[in-house]
Amino acid sequence: MEVCMILDASSVIRKVAKRILTSEDMAVVEAKNSAEAISMAAAQMPDYIIVDAGINDGQCDDLIRQLRKMDSKNEAKIICCMTQVDLAGMMRAKRAGADEFLLKPFDRHQLLGQFRTIRKAAA
């Protein structure tokens, strides 16, 4: 079973994403801050990580770099979740190692569409 970590300060966003993904037979773990996410990823790197772009005062690229530097057999696919289109922020996150982007608020169709895109790219 694939595992997705959702890192978002909002419990509502985590709950919505978890409900959508668990209905698709995916295991979901939640992190409410960067330190929690790093600790969880160090223990077991998930297959996917949804990172709130607003985490770390909007500097999620530092967190993405930390996740990418971790020694793990599994290289997680990282989706950066944003509240607005910010090209400069997207470029920083992409250079840091983000694979895809998703706008909040999202619905079932949008979230699962991102997972289909990532899976197609990996195949």
From TrEMBL:
Domain Response regulatory span(s) in chain numbering: 3-119
Q: Where is the signal peptide?
A: none
Q: Which residues form a coiled coil?
A: none
InterPro entries of this UniProt entry? Bact_response_regulator, CheY-like_superfamily, Sig_transdc_resp-reg_receiver
Q: Which Gene3D superfamilies match?
A: 3.40.50.2300
Q: Which Pfam families match?
A: Response_reg
Which PROSITE patterns does the entry link to?
Answer: RESPONSE_REGULATORY
Any one GO biological process: phosphorelay signal transduction system
UniProt keyword annotations, A-Z = Phosphoprotein, Transcription, Transcription regulation
User: Which SUPFAM superfamilies does this entry report, sorted A to Z?
Assistant: CheY-like (SSF52172)
| Positions bearing 4-aspartylphosphate | 52
Q: What is this protein called?
A: Chemotaxis protein CheY
Specify the species.
Ahrensia marina
Lineage of producing organism: Bacteria, Pseudomonadati, Pseudomonadota, Alphaproteobacteria, Hyphomicrobiales
